[in-house]
Amino acid sequence: MRCSCLPRAGPGNCARITETSRTTRTPVQFVAAAVGAVFLLVGIAGFIPGVTTHYDEMSFAGHDSMAKLLGLFMVSVLHNIVHLLFGVAGLALARTNGGARGFLIWGGVVYLALWLYGAIVPQDSAANFVPVNGADNWLHLGLALGMVALGIFAPSTERGGATARM
C-alpha cells in the first residue's frame, strides 16, 4: 500500500489517501486461469515419455498415432499443440472478466463440437486427424459441460460485490 498527500484548502492542510497496487482476480478469472493452466500442463505432459505411453509411436496427426496420455487418451503432436495453445489462450484471456467468461463458454462450445466430431467420425478413419478415442470423447463432453457451466455461473465480482477489471 502506498499513501500520498493531496493538497486541500491551503498549505499544511492535506488529506491522506490510500492506493492499493494489488490487482484482484474475480472467481471467473481464477477459474479460467486454472483451466488454462491445466490445458498447458496436459499439452506439456503429452510430450513426456512415460506420462505418454508408446511415445515413440506418436505421429504428427491422425488415427495411426498409438501414443496415449496416461495410457488412456490418444494424442499426437497436433493434439498436444492444440492443448498448449488452448492453455496459453486461457491464461491470456483470464486477465479480464469478459475474456475469462468468453474462454470458458466458447472453449466449452469448441469441446462440445469436438465431442460430436468424435462421436460421428469412425476412429479408424482418415477424418480422425486429431485423434480421438472413446476416452477422449467422454473427456471432451465433460470438459464442454464443465467449462460452459463455469463460464455461466462463476461470479465476476469480488466478495464485496465490486467488479474487478472488465
Short note summarizing the structure:
It is built from 4 helices and 5 strands.
Descriptive notes:
- There is one protein chain.
- The protein is mostly helical and 166 residues long.
- It has one domain.
- It is 48% helix and 11% strand.
- It has four helices and five strands, in the order ββαβββααα.
- Strands 3-4-5 form a three-stranded antiparallel β-sheet. A two-stranded antiparallel ribbon has the order 1-2.
- Helix 1 packs antiparallel against helix 2 (77-93) and helix 1 (27-45) packs antiparallel against helix 4.
- It is globular.
- It starts with a strand and ends in a 13-residue tail after the last helix.
- The model is unreliable at 17-21 (pLDDT under 50).
- The chain crosses the membrane at residues 30-49, 69-93, 100-118, 138-156.
Keywords:
3-stranded antiparallel β-sheet, two-stranded antiparallel ribbon, globular, 4 helices, 166 residues, mainly alpha
